[in-house]
């Protein structure tokens, strides 16, 4: 892996996992274009990293935002695209507003697909003289392989992203673009509400630090693996769910009362907050 020849566009760089990935890549000598929507947070992150990096303020869910991202990526001849930006969802389907459904699918699935399509020619052109490889990494989730109650739209978006990535890996295997799917399990970042974190605790779910997740991504790229599921036993559950989903059904049915307790609690907290504000 020729890290120092890489110029990487990292979406969602200001988030918990994004910041940790940015730091790990900067320490390897990668030049970064750090994308997010908050300029001061991006600048603060850039200032904290070793090396020279650029910041890029844009919303991946708008045509204008994606056009801006593509202009900057092309100008800087990126050789690595990490589609990391994403949003969470923690609600029963019946309580989920249609706008949330659309926003979640746009941010987690449609935007990475459209960015990837627009930037493929740039990745294919990059580093041609040095004959170095280009990289496309899509950040999925364990919930891109295991359907989980209370996160149906998030699961739909990440299942979709996993399918897109696998198809593209098989489509581009004879090109210079290495395609990788990276799937963390629960990680301590602000994508998880307090209720989601409390539920993880009650269910005994493992929660990783963003730094350990970033290190797992570095290892995946160094080994050239097309897929990486972070953490045991989650990576085993992913396999069991693929082969024998009824076994995982049974295990998760038992957890449903606990999951619903936290989803209802979230609803109560929101309701109380709304009442207090009105
Ligand atoms: N944390 C977990 O438990 C976990 C587990 C598995 C997978 N993942 C995946 O890991 C990735 C990173 O998540 P995280 O935990 O680091 O979440 P996070 O801390 O909430 O960060 C999310 C990042 O995405 C950016 N973003 C969201 N919507 C955007 C939009 N419309 N346009 C541009 N940027 C946008 C945010 O930018 P702003 O600063 O502008 O809001 C932020 O930088 C996501 O794809 C997530 O699904 C997370």
Automatic annotation (TrEMBL):
SUPFAM superfamilies: NAD(P)-binding Rossmann-fold domains (SSF51735). Keywords: Oxidoreductase. It comes from the Bacteria. GO terms for cellular component: membrane. CDD domains: SDR_c (cd05233). The keyword Coiled coil does not apply. One of its GO terms (molecular function) is oxidoreductase activity. Belongs to the short-chain dehydrogenases/reductases (SDR) family. PANTHER family: DEHYDROGENASE/REDUCTASE SDR FAMILY MEMBER 7B (PTHR44196), DEHYDROGENASE_REDUCTASE SDR FAMILY MEMBER 7B (PTHR44196:SF1). This is SDR family oxidoreductase.
């Amino acid at each position: 892996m020729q890290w120092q020849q890489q110029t990487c566009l990292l979406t969602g760089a200001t988030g918990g996992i994004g910041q940790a990935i940015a730091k790990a890549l900067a320490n390897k000598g990668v030049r970064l274009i750090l994308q997010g929507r908050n300029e001061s947070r991006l600048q603060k992150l850039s200032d904290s990293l070793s090396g020279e990096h650029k910041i890029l303020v844009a919303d991946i869910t708008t045509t204008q935002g994606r056009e801006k991202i593509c202009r900057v990526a092309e100008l800087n001849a990126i050789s690595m695209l990490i589609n990391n930006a994403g949003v969470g969802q923690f609600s029963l389907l019946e309580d989920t507003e249609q706008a949330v459904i659309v926003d979640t699918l746009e941010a987690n699935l449609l935007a990475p697909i459209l960015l990837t399509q627009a930037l493929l020619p740039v990745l294919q052109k990059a580093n041609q003289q040095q004959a170095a490889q280009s990289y496309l990494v899509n950040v999925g989730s364990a919930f891109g392989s295991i359907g989980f109650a209370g996160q149906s739209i998030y699961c739909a978006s990440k299942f979709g992203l996993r399918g897109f990535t696998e198809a593209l890996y098989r489509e581009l295997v004879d090109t210079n673009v290495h395609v990788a799917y990276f799937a963390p399990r629960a990680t301590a970042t602000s994508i998880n509400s307090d209720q989601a974190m409390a539920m993880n605790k009650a269910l005994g779910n493992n929660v990783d630090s963003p730094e350990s997740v970033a290190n797992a991504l570095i290892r995946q790229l160094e080994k050239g693996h097309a897929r990486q599921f972070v953490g045991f036993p989650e990576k085993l559950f992913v396999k069991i769910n693929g082969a024998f989903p009824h076994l995982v059904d049974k295990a998760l049915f038992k957890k449903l009362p606990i999951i619903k307790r936290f989803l209802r609690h979230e609803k109560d907290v929101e309701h109380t907050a709304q009442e207090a504000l009105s």
